[in-house]
């Protein structure tokens, strides 16, 4: 099916167009620069930016795909989770389009979209597979039986962070190192020239009782505090702070835990395929360490190109196409946004 997908859960206004697993257009307008001086996303600014960007982005997507709106088979939109005021802009736009064009409307899950985007790169998903979802607001290990959420167990969350998300940890560490928002890409770059073994930062929930009780869960707030304490101590002692070494050592701690638990989840579930999604999945070290460990464990790794890992409309469009193919029931005109939609609910 030819599906138009609309994404507006945070600070990216995305419109994507796909035909099944074929990507035809993926236009993204970001308000990230408007939030930079506040050190994080300001919800009111994001909502206004979505309003301004929605129609121009839609027009660009149709032009790029050379598709007329009357040709699309369905409209998919992010119904949650995300910022309420941001989500409602996309949902309202999608409803208006679906109503005006008399097309079926599908409210879908943003997090499932981060996983589904890989279908555009590598085709049908061998199931069951394990997905490592690492984004700005979420960090989870998922068992995916059916990405459309219909067959078998659908999407089951094996574990998740008990405090900060991985992306959030990058953003907070960047801030305490005096680096700009968003922190992921800048810490990633700073780490490139550092020594990942320079400082032994803690790996949360990876040993003893913690591991037993939280085998597939994550914790990054202790790591962030450890980085803060290390930097403070250096400054108090009048020593310089070797930024690349701090960044590389922090990054190694994050990637070590994420990859170890992802591979362990494959072993525990018998899954032979592992995929990653979400903004942090763009991280170079995470990708290389995971490739190494997946190879050693006999697991096939699927990584979408970095540009598809961060928020976009194509991930929503391809998830919509999967839902259409699975015979999912269209959402009614009463479709609303749900800021805390659980990942197991693919279709609203
Ligand atoms: P969610 O999907 O949980 O609702 P979100 O949509 O805001 O949150 P994404 O857009 O998927 O999150 O990802 C943004 C996050 O990814 C930010 O925290 C950012 O710092 C991080 N990030 C982006 N690129 C990289 C990178 N190269 N290395 C590490 N982190 C990165
Ligand atoms: Mg964003
Ligand atoms: Fe996201």
Q: Write down the overall geometry.
A: globular
What's the total number of strands? 10
Bound molecules: adenosine-5'-triphosphate, magnesium ion, fe (iii) ion
Main sheet record? 5 strands, mixed
| Mean pLDDT rating | 97
Alpha-beta content class = alpha/beta
Question: Order of helices and strands, N to C?
Answer: EEEHHEHEHHEEEHHHHHEHEHH
User: Which stretches are poorly predicted, pLDDT < 50 over at least 5 residues?
Assistant: none
Binding site for substrate: 133-137, 171, 184, 188, 283
Pfam family, one: TsaD
Organism: Microlunatus spumicola
Protein name: tRNA N6-adenosine threonylcarbamoyltransferase
Give a written overview of the molecule:
Keywords: Acyltransferase, Cytoplasm, Iron, Metal-binding, Transferase, tRNA processing. This is tRNA N6-adenosine threonylcarbamoyltransferase. It is found in: Cytoplasm. This protein is of the alpha/beta class and about 350 residues long. It has helices at about 30-35, 45-65, 85-100, 110-115, 120, 165-175, 185-190, 210-215, 220-235, 245-270, 285-295, 305-310, 315-325; strands at about 1-5, 10-20, 20-30, 75-80, 105-110, 130-135, 140-145, 155-160, 275, 300. The strands form two sheets. A five-stranded mixed sheet has the order 3-2-1-4-5, with helices on both faces. The chain has a five-stranded mixed sheet with strand order 8-7-6-9-10, sandwiched between helices. A hairpin with a 4-residue loop joins strand 6 (about 130-135) and strand 7. The longest helix is centred in the C-terminal third of the chain and has 27 residues, at about 245-270. About 55% of the residues are buried. The structure holds adenosine-5'-triphosphate, magnesium ion (MG) and fe (iii) ion. Adenosine-5'-triphosphate binds near residues 136 and 167.
């Amino acid at each position: 099916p030819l599906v138009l997908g609309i994404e507006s859960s945070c600070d990216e206004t995305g419109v994507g167009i796909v035909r099944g697993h074929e990507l035809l257009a993926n236009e993204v307008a970001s308000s990230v620069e408007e939030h930079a001086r506040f050190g994080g996303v300001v919800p009111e600014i994001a909502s206004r930016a979505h309003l301004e960007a929605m129609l121009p982005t839609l027009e660009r997507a149709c032009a790029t795909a050379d598709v007329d709106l009357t040709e699309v088979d369905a409209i998919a939109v992010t119904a949650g989770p995300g910022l309420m005021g941001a989500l409602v802009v996309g949902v309202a736009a999608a409803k208006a389009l679906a109503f005006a064009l008399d097309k079926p409307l599908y409210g879908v899950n943003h997090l499932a979209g981060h996983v589904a985007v890989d279908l555009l790169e590598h085709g049908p998903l061998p199931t069951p597979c394990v997905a490592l979802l690492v984004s700005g607001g979420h960090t989870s290990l998922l068992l995916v039986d059916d990405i459309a959420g219909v067959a078998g167990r659908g999407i089951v969350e094996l574990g998740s962070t008990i405090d900060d998300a991985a992306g959030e940890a990058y953003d907070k560490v960047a801030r305490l190192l005096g680096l700009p928002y968003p922190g992921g890409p800048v810490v990633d770059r700073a780490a490139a020239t550092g020594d990942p073994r320079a400082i032994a930062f803690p790996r949360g929930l990876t040993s003893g009782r913690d591991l037993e009780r939280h085998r597939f869960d994550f914790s990054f707030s202790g790591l962030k505090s450890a980085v803060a304490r290390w930097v403070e101590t250096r400054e108090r002692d009048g020593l310089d702070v070797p930024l690349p070494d701090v960044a590389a050592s922090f990054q190694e701690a994050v990637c070590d835990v994420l990859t170890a638990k992802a591979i362990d989840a494959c072993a525990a579930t018998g899954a032979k395929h592992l995929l990653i999604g979400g903004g942090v999945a763009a991280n170079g070290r995470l990708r290389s360490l995971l490739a190494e460990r997946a190879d050693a464990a006999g697991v096939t790794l699927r990584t979408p190109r970095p540009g598809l890992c961060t928020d976009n409309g194509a991930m929503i469009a391809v998830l919509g196409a999967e839902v259409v193919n699975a015979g999912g029931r269209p959402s009614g005109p009463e479709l609303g946004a749900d800021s805390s939609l659980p990942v197991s609910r693919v279709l609203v």
